[in-house]
Design brief:
The chain is mostly helical. It has one domain (11-363). 67% of the residues lie in helices and 3% in strands. The protein is built from 14 helices and three strands. The chain has helices spanning 7-10, 14-34, 43-60, 65-89, 109-127, 140-154, 159-176, 180-201, 204-214, 225-236, 248-251, 263-296, 300-324, 342-364, and strands at residues 91-93, 96-101, 106-107. A three-stranded antiparallel beta sheet has the order 1-2-3, with helices on one face. A hairpin with a 4-residue loop joins strand 2 (96-101) and strand 3 (106-107). It is globular and about 60 Å long. The two termini are 34 Å apart.
Length: 372
């Protein structure tokens, strides 16, 4: 016992769970409002999914280091095969072929590849001798592990998820200690190849999203409609918002996707700047905890898993918030723990469960201050 609190309860990472519960509860209220004052179909399923996936995260947190390393490669292969299956028998929605119909849910395998790549790369670098880190043997296999699923995801097409996979993988490679000159070289190469990728690699609608991002007011009723309405919703919320369930942009259907990609705009209209601070503050607490878990890890595999999973959640949050504020092109990336969606909730709770797993390893392992 810790005072009057049972020890199993006291041991839980409440510095992460508390802000997580805040985001889930706040998200349920916003989804209730987005459905015009009804718990169905968004808010109730949001809470139920969280309950199921939270139980899954607690189960995942009980995995040993050896078990996690053992399953890293099989998980990666299974998700890769699911991406291949998407190309063959995938469900088409919104003009893209990204989902597998499982009957009880539409699963988006590309979402699962984000934590799968992090886990696989962490295993790869944990077993690679330190002396090989500055050599091509640390770069070529890792690049293949990242780019193979990215190529499959781009066929769907899904640029946003592809970038998320690359970002998570690159963060693991950076944390593993690959030479900085390689990252600088990759940045220069990307800048040089960007025009070619834009004109010959992107679909026409993806190119239009970039043009719209640069000048959304040029077509406010067409391609710039999403960003324009999102800015109106956020701006009209002011300091304290219009009030719960009083948002006109979402209720009058001006704001597209108010329950998924643009849920932050829905929230900001009703809860204003104060609500935005609560959401961003809760995410900041989760990121701080994730980074503290990585810093506390004396094991190389654990440290890379923790950093990679934290980076994966961070990418979701950063891109979604930049998108709804007009600071980035519109891409199909939901806001973690608040947007309605099963696949994204599953992915982010896998990341949370993985961080809880590493946190448990840290409590049990003696601190050596060295990476193994």
């Amino acid at each position: 016992m810790t005072g009057i609190v049972p020890a199993p309860v006291a041991r839980q990472p409440w510095q992460m769970l508390f802000p997580l519960f805040v985001l889930i509860g706040f998200g349920a209220l916003v989804l209730f409002s987005a459905a015009a004052g009804s718990w169905d179909p968004y808010a109730s399923s949001h809470v139920i999914r969280f309950g199921v996936f939270l139980a899954m995260a607690f189960v995942l947190s009980r995995f040993s280091r050896e078990l996690a390393m053992f399953f890293a490669f099989p998980i990666y292969i299974v998700v890769l095969l699911m991406l291949v299956a998407v190309e063959a028998i995938g469900f088409v929605g919104g003009g893209s072929q990204r989902w597998l119909d499982l009957g009880f849910m539409q699963l988006q395998p590309s979402e699962l590849m984000k934590p799968a790549v992090v886990l696989m790369l962490a295993r790869f670098y944990a077993t690679l001798p330190i002396g090989m880190i500055p050599t091509w043997r640390a770069l070529i296999p890792a690049g293949a592990l990242i780019m193979t699923p990215v190529a499959l995801v781009l066929l769907q097409p899904d640029l946003g998820t592809s970038l998320a996979i690359v970002f998570g993988g690159a963060m693991v490679m950076f944390a593993a200690g690959l030479p900085m000159r390689w990252f600088l070289g990759a940045a220069v190469a990307a800048a040089v190849l960007a025009p070619l990728a834009f004109f010959f690699g992107l679909q026409p609608y993806q190119q239009q999203r970039v043009f719209t991002f640069l000048d959304p007011e040029s077509d406010p009723l067409g391609d710039g409609y999403h960003i324009t309405q999102s800015k109106i919703a956020i701006g009209s919320g002011g300091f304290s918002g219009k009030g719960f369930n009083e948002g006109s942009q979402s209720h009058l259907h001006y704001l597209p996707e108010p329950h998924t990609d643009f849920i932050f705009a829905t929230m900001a209209e009703e809860w204003g700047f104060v609500g935005g601070l609560v959401v961003i503050g809760a995410f900041a607490m989760i990121f701080r905890w994730g980074l503290s878990v990585a810093r506390a890890s004396s094991d190389r595999f654990a440290k890379l898993v923790a950093l990679g999973m934290t980076a994966t959640i961070f990418f979701y949050v950063a891109i979604n918030l930049m998108m709804v504020m007009g600071l980035a092109p519109v891409v199909g990336i939901p806001l973690p723990f608040m947007s309605h969606g099963g696949s994204s909730m599953l992915t982010n709770m896998i990341c949370i469960g993985s961080l809880m797993m590493v946190h448990r390893w840290n409590r049990k392992a003696p601190r050596t201050g060295l990476l193994r």
